[in-house]
Amino acid sequence: MTSTKKKPTYNEAIEEIETILYQMENEELDVDILSENVKRVSFLVNHCREKLLKTKEDVENVLKNIS
């Protein structure tokens, strides 16, 4: 999946990161696509970070409204 397609869910992003890292660790990635995969992992990590921050904000807002 490229960054121009629909953004993955958090779990999909984590699974993709794990798959790419596994391939890198086991030297299953061709050198020609290594750079592309490193960029993809960077995008996915940032995407997950954004989702986590948004979720944190949402939970904090809900907790404020409960008190």
Characterize this entry briefly:
The protein is mainly α and 67 residues long. It has two helices and no strands.
Present the secondary structure layout.
Elements: H1 10-25, H2 31-66
Question: How would you characterize this protein structure?
Answer:
- With 67 residues, the protein is an all-alpha fold.
- The chain has one domain.
- It contains two helices and no strands.
- The chain is elongated, with a radius of gyration of 16 Å.
- The relative contact order is 0.13.
- The mean pLDDT is 90.
N-to-C CA distance: 42 Å
Series of secondary-structure elements, N-terminal to C-terminal:
HH
Strand tally is: 0
Average of per-residue pLDDT values: 90
Structural class: mainly alpha
Helix content: over 70%
Low-confidence stretches: none
Number of helical elements: 2
Q: What's the overall geometry? A: elongated
Largest sheet: none
Number of domains: 1
* Proportion of beta-strand residues: under 5%
User: What is the C-alpha radius of gyration, as a whole number of Å?
Assistant: 16 Å
Task: Describe the structure using short key phrases.
mainly alpha, 67 residues
